[in-house]
Amino acid sequence: MRKPVIAGNWKMYKLVSEAVSLVLELKPLVANANHCEVVVAPPYTSLRSVADRLEGSGIKVAGQNLCESAEFGARTGEVNGAMLRDAGCEWVIIGHSERREFSSENDALVNAKLKAAMKTGLRPIVCVGERLEEREAGRAEEVVRSQVTGSLGSLTPDEAMPIVVAYEPVWAIGTGRTATPEIAQSMHASIRRFLMEQFGNKTADLMRILYGGSVKPDNIKALMAQRDIDGALVGGASLDARSFAQIVNYPG
Q1: Would 203 disulfide with which of 20, 46, 157, 236, CB 3.0-4.6 Å?
Q2: What are the percentages of helix, strand and coil residues in the chain, rounded to 5?
């Protein structure tokens, strides 16, 4: 049985005081959400303040990125996995499409970051997804297959099992356009097939695959009704406590 994960990616939003206010409002709204794991990913500047306010709750904290080196060293502007753990993180987002596009992250770098996260005991959410022109050219599965196999390359089945994959069609991130539940399910089923080819049936059956891309309270139920959708990586809707709580509490 795959327990769903609902994760909120705050991106480059919220000052520390705003981040604290958000989680203080969110905590009681999702206090009974035992059906899923709840994760929030604030910007670096708010990690410790948010983690302190969430201590003892069921909400976990994620970093939005990390350095591919697990070691300390002369890496100006970088943050390694140990620093994220020290700031209260248990999870980390890796390879988000915005990182791939604006910071030129490729699958090899995503794979290195994944290994660095695992080395420091962080639970990774690895993002994959095609651009609109790739989907329109009929290359969506080809692109996503390449990202899955490249980003998770050289792992053993046991190493891969705890990893969460997030399918985020780039054309649906922050655009208001959402893949229909059927389109999302089709790609999720393909991703699970790619994982089976790479790691075997047992591992693929247990790995969780999230959907991301304009997830909102009014579409979460239909998405979560799909067989291979195991949760959501939520962007804009996670910046409002009540909106995100509605998504978390989707069975209600």
Answers
A1: 157
A2: 45, 15, 40
User: Mean of the pLDDT values across residues 169-177?
Assistant: 79
Which residue type, as a one-letter code, is found at position 117?
Answer: A
pLDDT at 21 over 90: yes
Residues 6+ apart with CB under 8 A from 85: 120, 121, 122
Q: Residue 219's closest CA among 204, 232, 203?
A: 232
Q: Of residues 177 and 20, which shows the higher confidence score?
A: 20
Of 68, 96, 130, 134, which is the active-site residue?
96
Given the residues 98, 105, 168, 188, select the one marked as catalytic: 168
Residue 96 annotated as catalytic: yes
Q: 152 in helix, strand or coil?
A: coil
DSSP, collapsed to helix, strand or coil, labels residue 226 as: coil
Q: What structural domains does the chain harbor?
A: 5-248 (3.20.20.70)
Q: What does each C-alpha distance from 153 to 116, 161, 168 come to in angstroms?
A: 14, 13, 20
- Taking the whole predicted model, whether its pTM rises above 0.85 is answered as yes
Mean pLDDT of the chain, nearest integer: 96
Contact status, residue 103 vs residue 110, Cβ threshold 8 Å: no
Q: Say whether 78 is catalytic.
A: no
